[in-house]
Design goal:
With about 350 residues, this protein is an all-alpha fold. It has one domain. Helices cover about 70% and strands about 0% of the residues. The protein is built from 10 helices and no strands. Helix 2 runs antiparallel to helix 4 and helix 6 packs across helix 10. The protein is elongated, with a radius of gyration of 47 Å. It starts with a helix and ends in a 72-residue tail after the last helix. The C terminus is likely disordered.
Length: about 350
């Protein structure tokens, strides 16, 4: 079974080997933000042009009346912008998630041109799974919001310990439910994009995978959430003081547009890279559940060895040698030896009759 750390490494490697996906995701996020703000900016420009020449109070009253009339058109424009952003996001994940899954499975970058082919082929499936997940998330959010709107006034009207406990439990339930729906939505997108499941089947298989590997899924989400916090803290620490020191003048604010835009692009690319890495880790878990990832064989377990005994200091000394007491030997007294008599020899006569010289023997 694939471990959580291995899945995280596969996701990071897949996101790093395909940097164009992170850049494209960042551009889509920025484009969606700009697209969502365009209707509001357009309505503000219309109101300013219509009532710019009138007095302040009268112009404000006319503007409020115009805002009431522009309510439905503005809501329709915002809804259209949200639908376009959602469709672009679904198309992006339809091509990006299979690329990440293939990269995690093969351990190599997929061939060029794979993204667009997979995006066009799997857009319908991913859109269906995303629609089911979004509808479920919206329904649960509306129910929890209505419960909170009813619970908060009651708690402040008649504060009591049971009501406070119920409100705390409701807030905890809303947070946990939002987290679970978000994780299930990510797994359902992976099932529909990388494995070809339709909307309902993708959600059911995602719930099954979440139940089997709940620890790994939550650990991956927690690791990348901490990574996002670290990147946000680092970017705010590095660029926040520089941008905050700009004076509140038109020239200074105009000149600060370029650094702010650059910071927005850098932060969007960094967060998109982390998001892609997280999705790649989830894709690795899903591929492992299908038996598509070959793991290296685990080393054979070693035979248990005897625990090493701690040698005491006194054991390192040489053992004392027992010295046997020597037995006293018996001394044998020798008797005195009798001296032999010395016989003095006379000089032997020379048979030739020559006189004996002194010194001859």
């Amino acid at each position: 079974m694939l471990r959580t750390g291995q899945a995280i490494r596969m996701g990071l490697r897949a996101a790093t080997r395909n940097p164009e996906l992170a850049f494209g995701r960042a551009l889509l996020d920025l484009a969606g933000s700009i697209l969502s703000s365009l209707p509001v900016l357009f309505a503000a420009v219309l109101l300013w042009r219509a009532f710019a020449g009138e007095q302040s109070l009268r112009g404000l009253l006319h503007a409020l009346e115009a805002i009431k009339r522009l309510g439905w058109p503005l809501a329709g424009a915002l809804f259209a912008a949200a639908v376009i952003s959602w469709a672009l996001s679904a198309g992006f994940w339809a091509g990006a998630l299979p690329v990440l899954a293939v990269d995690a499975e093969m351990g190599a970058r997929p061939p060029a041109g794979t993204f667009f082919r997979l995006a066009f082929a799997g857009f319908a499936r991913v859109a269906g799974a995303s629609a089911i997940t979004s509808a479920l998330s919206l329904l649960i959010s509306l129910c929890l919001t209505a419960a909170l709107l009813l619970a908060v006034p009651l708690t402040f009207a008649k504060p009591s310990l049971p009501l406070l406990a119920s409100l705390a439990a409701l807030l905890t339930c809303s947070l946990l439910t939002g987290l679970i729906i978000d994780l299930l939505g990510n797994l359902a997108l992976i099932r529909s994009a990388a494995f070809g499941d339709d909307g309902a089947s993708a959600f059911i298989r995602a719930a099954q995978l979440f139940g089997e590997r709940i620890g790994g899924v939550v650990a991956i989400a927690a690791v990348f959430f901490l990574g996002e916090l670290m990147i946000a803290t680092a970017l705010g620490t590095l660029f926040g003081p520089v941008l905050a020191d700009a004076p509140l003048t038109f020239e200074a604010q105009f000149l600060s547009i370029a650094p702010r835009l650059a910071l927005s692009i850098v932060s969007a690319v960094a967060f998109a890279w982390l998001e892609l890495a997280r999705q790649g880790a989830f894709a690795a878990l899903a591929a492992d559940a299908e038996g598509l990832i070959e793991l290296p064989p685990e080393p054979a377990p070693r035979a248990p060895t005897q625990p090493r005994r701690t040698v005491q200091a006194w054991e390192l000394r040489p053992p004392p040698i027992a010295v046997q007491p020597s037995t006293p030997e018996h001394i044998i007294e020798a008797l005195p030896i009798a001296e032999e008599p010395v016989i003095e020899a006379l000089p032997m006569p020379d048979p030739t009759g020559a006189p004996h010289e002194k010194g001859d023997s």
